[in-house]
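CORE FACILITY INTAKE
Project code: CF-77B
Contact: R.S. (postdoc)
Sample description: multi-component assembly, two entities in total
Requested service: structural model of the whole complex
Turnaround: standard
Below are the sequence entries exactly as provided by the requester. Do not edit them.
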Amino acid sequence: MRRILPKVLWSVVGVAVAAVWVFPVYWMVLSAFTPNARLRQIPPSFLPVNTTLTNLRTVVSDPDFLSALRMSLTITALTVVVVLAFAFLGALAISRFRFRGRKSFLLAVLFIQMLPAEGLFIAQYKMLSSVGGVVPAFGLNSVLGITVLYTAAIIPFTIWMLRGFVAGVPIELEEAAMVDGLSRTQAFLRITFPLLAPGLVASGVYAFLQAWNEFTIALVVLPDQSSQTLPLWLRGFLNASVNRGVDWAQVMAASTVIAVPVIVFFLFVQSRMTSGLVSGAVKG
Amino acid sequence: MSTLPLRRRRPPRIPYLLLLPSLVVLIAALGYPIGWQIVTSMQEYGLAQQFGQPPVFVGLANYIEIFSQDQLWAVVARSIAFCLVNAFVTVALGLALALLMRAVPAAIKVIIQVCLLLAWATPMVAAVTVFRWLFDYRSGIVNWLLTEAGLERFAGFAWLSSPLTFFLVASSIVIWMSVPFVALSLYAGLTQVPQEIIEAAQIDGASPRRILGSILLPMVRPVLSVVLLLQIIWDLRVFAQIRLLQDAGAPVAETNLLGNFIYELGAARQDFAAASAVSLFVLALTVLLSWPYVRSLLKEAEE
């Protein structure tokens, strides 16, 4: 009895803590499916009642939502591709070569990933606004301009992450394949590259989440309504209704639309990534 | 060292070529703005310069001016207080949750982990929006719960209108979002402690408290110091959460943290010289704080 009682007690505490932590997410999703009139009633209901899809339909058919979705998808896809390509080359350089300046570069990479966006965004705004005067494709409100800024913000950590994966593939594997008659390029493409797949997936997911959720830089360099991304749209959606009494059901539907795909993706990847790392093809 | 044969075979140009794309992006998007800030922070750069007048070099005058203002020091003090309180509360809660996960049966542990992951995965803007709904003065659940509990003065209480309660809401968002990372990292650290050591201590009659203080805590100390340092660095740069909460009608001047202050100087007042000076101050502070972390990472990697 003396051994069982604490176990039960801690379990109760554990469930209570879990419930507190998950509550905001639960409340968001629940409110998204509840009519706004019900949300204003007292006492509130903690279980689904009169569930409706109206809120979600209203949100998804908002023309600004569609344009923000398109903008977010374009910027994120472009950022992920560029980050992966550049970071992969950088990681190769760092883990497969010893050269002058290597250590300084590593040091710079580590420091850069700690720098806050707020320490740079005013200068980045000024830079894009001057660049835009000459090359509009890279100016304020442009996909390419913000992609360059996102790439620079994300690349240090991805280089660092991929470096570990590249270093984990022993060069002897490649050399063995070359002894068996493959060229250096073939050996790299057929032996090393497939082994790096989990690392590339992990880095790609990291880049995706960073670019998709980013708010601060976007707030500064995408001032136009027509070029806003999803996080900016959500903020605008809430602020637009503040003065006439917020329609929280719709706002929560908007938050849910943005959050749930990311949460599902994150959970899926989280389980996949750990198993991918553990059962990686590199053994001994 | 497996890389040695390669170095002999390949010309030394290749690593530089491989680094070139990353370097170009980093210099264009970070190097140039930092350089611009250094130059601008030493120039007179106000509205007149916006309209085409050439900037005048004024040396450190901008720094002297901005650092002699009480307004800046109020923001600095507020940011540091906010940062330290949140970082320590986050790490303390994270440690408590990690220990709790050790004490409960596997099924409960999984429930806690899933709930923490859900909070961690929620995009920041969505999280702030949900908390604005939870703390809404009219039909928010927090006011309802407090009123039900007998605290009548919370009926229609506007949390975001006065600085103290504003920061209470801001802190709960920041802590809610960052505890999962700390708890899961520390829990991973705790599972590395060999079971034999704990069993040996139990056989010797050590109390749970003694095991915690003399075995578990000392053995997770490296992880503990890293997550604490990371939290301090991350909580110093809280900008978006504050900005989004201020939308609800908070007194901006009394709730600005460093990032928000820079935003106000640059975006609203167009005082780019002052914004650059404060930005460089924040960057220097970050580099200073990150120094121990970066050094340990580098040492670990090069071993």
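Facility notes:
- The CA atoms of residues 157 and 298 of chain B lie 50 Å apart.
- The two ends of chain B are 11 Å apart (CA to CA).
Invoice: internal transfer
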